[in-house]
Design goal:
This protein has 151 residues and is mainly alpha-helical. The chain folds into 2 domains: 32 residues; 115 residues, Orthogonal Bundle (Arc Repressor Mutant, subunit A). It is 69% helix and 12% strand. It has 6 helices and 5 strands. It has a 3-stranded antiparallel sheet with strand order 3-5-4. Strand 4 and strand 5 form a beta hairpin. The two termini are 31 Å apart.
Length: 151
């Protein structure tokens, strides 16, 4: 148990608190820029990619299939993405930004990327690399332990 002021918090609670605060900050940023939170993460996934399947978007964002499908329909309706048949499974569509979509993605993401670059620069390269390594290690160990429990 760790003490924080007069409140005793477990490492698990502190981890969840930090994770939740990060999500709340991205939600707040999205709201302040009139961008749907889920749309923001789908754009983030597609940013710089030639094309991705909806499953790939789900895997890298953690969003549900239904949420990604809904966002993709919205983006398609605005002319921001196109869908094309998958390479192996023709039922699985490849999602790609159109030129209009790439411009919209830059408009939405560039201010966020600038904020993130500023924050990461203030943290310093050593701390950033350590944070990435620690999160990667957490995810690796979590996945292995989860697989043991699920099998």
């Amino acid at each position: 148990m760790k003490e924080e002021g007069s409140i005793v918090l477990s490492d698990n609670e502190r981890f969840w608190g930090a994770w939740g605060q990060a999500n709340a900050l991205y939600t707040r940023w999205a709201d302040a820029h009139a961008v749907n939170y889920y749309l923001l993460f789908v754009l983030y996934a597609l940013d710089g990619q030639a094309a991705m399947t909806q499953k790939m978007i789900c895997d890298c964002t953690g969003l549900t299939k239904q949420t990604v499908n809904s966002v993709i329909r919205t983006l398609k309706g605005e002319g921001y993405v196109v869908l094309s048949p998958g390479q192996g499974d023709k039922r699985e569509k490849q999602v790609a930004l159109t030129e209009k979509g790439a411009a919209y993605s830059r408009e939405v993401l560039e201010p966020l990327h600038e904020l993130e670059r500023t924050v990461l620069a203030r943290m310093g390269n050593g701390r950033v690399q350590q944070m990435i390594n620690d999160i990667t290690l957490f995810n690796t160990v979590f996945e292995k332990e989860m697989e043991k429990r699920l099998s």
